[in-house]
Amino acid sequence: MNLREKKAMQKKEAIMKAAISVFAEKTYQGATLEDVAQRLLMTKGAVYYYFKDKQDLLYQSQVYLLENSLNNIAEIEESDLPAEEKVSQAISQHIEYVIHERTGFESMLSSESILSNEQYEHILRLQNGYEKHFDELIQEGITQGVFIQADIKIVRNLILGAMNWLMHWYSEGGKKSKHELSKMIAFYLMRMVLKTPNDQVES
DNA sequence: CATCGCATAAGAATCATCAA
DNA sequence: TTGATGATTCTTATGCGATG
Question: pLDDT per residue over A168-184, tens digit each?
Fold first, then answer.
């Protein structure tokens, strides 16, 4: 990727981030591309230079968020941390990202009706890919004997469900920083799968 | 009251054109 | 040549009075 392409990517990223927050504030239908453009002190013509149309902007924004999540978890998976630590990190990192880009993830829930089938299917594939990474991390813990013999799918959905529900109750003004909070939640969720001393004795 | 037709507005998308 | 502009055209939604 040459310099020019990198620059263009940065610009696209900036537009996508602006779009995510504008869509979150005014809803997709309620927001105009002028709103998005104004946030970056550009004109809507410039937005059309980078994106085919409004729907394309929404689609690419969501792909962008998901791909970032995927990269994050893949990085953790490839690291040489103990399995227990990997899952714990994946959880707290997911939480911090969801809080950080809360608005974008919220709108992902309602985008099914807006995006084309192909677009939505691609989003789903990315989500599945993310879940798969999570499953692999959990499996690792089980194989290494630090987690209980759990049903991976159920455990994964419980963890993801708990994390994604967070965006409904999290508030900026809370006492805990998002870092503290994510660590706490990771701690609680981990207890669902971690072996306790009792488990160790049995097996 | 329902609805038809029309005016108006707002937003989406295109296009000629410009500056760096 | 590329990125960006802003005027424009196209499209859709909204209001609203006239008409049956």
Answer: 888 877 788 888 999 99
| Interatomic separation, CA of residue A45 and C1' of nucleotide C9, rounded (Å) | 14
pTM recorded for the entire structure:
0.81
A63 and A18 in one domain?
no
Per-position b or e across A122-156, b if 16+ CB within 10 A of its CB: bbeebbebbeebbeebbebbbeeebbeebebeebb
Q: Is the CB of A34 under 7 A from strand B?
A: yes
Q: How far in angstroms lies nucleotide B6's C1' from the CA of residue A152?
A: 63
**Strand B nucleotides in reach of protein CB atoms, 7 A cut-off:** 10-16
Q: Are residues A14 and A83 in the same domain?
A: no
Q: Which domain holds residue A22?
A: 1-51
